[in-house]
Amino acid sequence: MPDIFLSYRRRDSASATGRLADRLVEHFGPERVFHDHASILAGEDFAAAIRRAINLSTVVLAVIGPDWLEARDEHGTRRLDDPNDFVRLEIADALDAGLPVLPVLVEGAAMPTAAQLPAVLADFARCQAVELSESRWRYDSDRLIALLQSRYAIESEQPPLLSDPDEKLVLSWPGRLALDLLELATHPTRLIGRRQTGRAIDHLRAFAFLVVCLALGNTLLLLGLDRYLTLREAGDFVGFQLFAGVLELFVVTLVSVALTVAWRLVGSRVEFRQITLIMAFIGGGAVLGSAVGWLVWSLGLMLSDPTLIGRATELLAGRTAGAPATLSERAALVGNMVQAAAQGPARAAMVFATLVWAGTLLWTAIAWGSFRLSFGASRLRAAGATLLCAGLLGAVLALSVWLAG
Hints:
5-stranded parallel β-sheet, 16 helices
């Protein structure tokens, strides 16, 4: 999915936009640039493709030529005054989504004022424009590329372009990683969708994110079981990490297989690696968020009764003091946990943990929308694929229980 969306009028600046698109593709690669002429497949819904590309982009470049403002249709009506005008819709959708819109002036065009624009585009007049002049096209386009790399952290395999050798325009990898994590937390569908480039590096990053989240989540799980990490009780910490990690990776892979089958059954031509990339981000974020909530909840109980979690761990194993746990012991433990949860520290921790779990659930639901946006599917088709996936997983679980019995 693209990082850079090019908005333009064909009768106004098709040549200049094509030239700019070629320059951007040369530096960032074709997967990073959305240019309708080359990015929309034959037979694809034009309006849906435009809308999806905007929702997944990092920045919108609005190319403005001499006739951009006053372009008119066959009836003499100014196109910008038409609510269904594609250029108007593209810029309005980007502004509504909170995306940065960068006006690019070509062929001597001037930036329109708010009074010259429809009300829905009034904010566009306040966007800082850049100019690409014919006499210094290469220099101006290099400065634009440097701006895209520095301000919006758009990646490129080409060497960075610096307009000033003493100015550090391009973020280092820690800064880029921090921005990616921030966007993943706040706009998961946007970042996950842009990782669907087909490049091996994007799949490696997704897998690395999953592995790190699983390792952190399992560590938080142990921290929640005992304030001393339960290293003495759990035995080998590395062994526990490997066992839990392999089990969690198996679950993520199983869900990915079921999703691949489900999406193909509803008529979408998707690849397994596309599904696994999305599931890596969703699974990693869900596990980490759930583990943070668990840690907060368990620490609250420890503040009320330091022995409570340790006793609960024994009962989960079905034993207490070296002997099988009785029904009365289990009931007494539940009563102690309810009583401890009603006390001040535990009550505050429970409230905070509930908020963390609710936030994780909401984030997961939003991130799940990455499937629909990445594959350009309707809500009905996405819902059908999700239900089919749930049915397939349920059938696998039922079969496993039957075989175990």
